[in-house]
Amino acid sequence: MTGTTRSSADLDPRRRRILVRAWRRGIREMDLVIGGFADAEIATLSDAELDELELLMAEEDADIFRWVTGEVAIPERFRTAMFERMRGYVPDFEPPAGPEGQASGS
Q: For the chain, which residues make up each domain, given as ranges?
């Protein structure tokens, strides 16, 4: 699994499968968000939270990206404590500022 920092050796088959899927999303930004969240929390998620995570991972990556970055409102079914925890794993996707405080490429 590209990017993962966690071993899956101590996980049950369901958690292993989710961890692999979390790091193979299709777009790198979602690998980092969902994969980073899974690395940190997969072992402690309840069965209900695992159900929720699997339901979320069935959604389109572009939609999930817009939800976690706040570009569009999160659908009611995903407005949960687990989703908010996952949003805590969103890296800074903004380009770094150039030498004069402007975004690179401007």
A: 13-87
Q: Under DSSP, is residue 91 helix (H, G, I), strand (E, B) or coil?
A: coil
Confidence at residue 10, expressed as pLDDT on a 0 to 100 scale:
78
Distance, CA of 30 to CA of 24 (rounded, Å): 9
What is the amino acid identity at position 29?
A: E
Looking at every residue in the chain, the average pLDDT score rounds to 85
d(CA 26, CA 77): 23
Rounded Cα–Cα distance for residues 106 and 94 (Å): 13
Q: How far is 103 from 12, CA to CA, in rounded Å?
A: 44
Annotation: CATH topology of 13-87: DNA polymerase; domain 1 (1.10.150)
Is the pTM value of this prediction over 0.85?
A: no
Query: Helix 47-57 crosses helix 13-22 at what angle (to 10 degrees)?
Result: 30
Instruction: Collapse the DSSP code of 42 into the 3-class scheme (helix H, G, I; strand E, B; otherwise coil) and give the result.
Output: helix
Within 10 Å of residue 31's Cβ, how many Cβ atoms?
A: 19
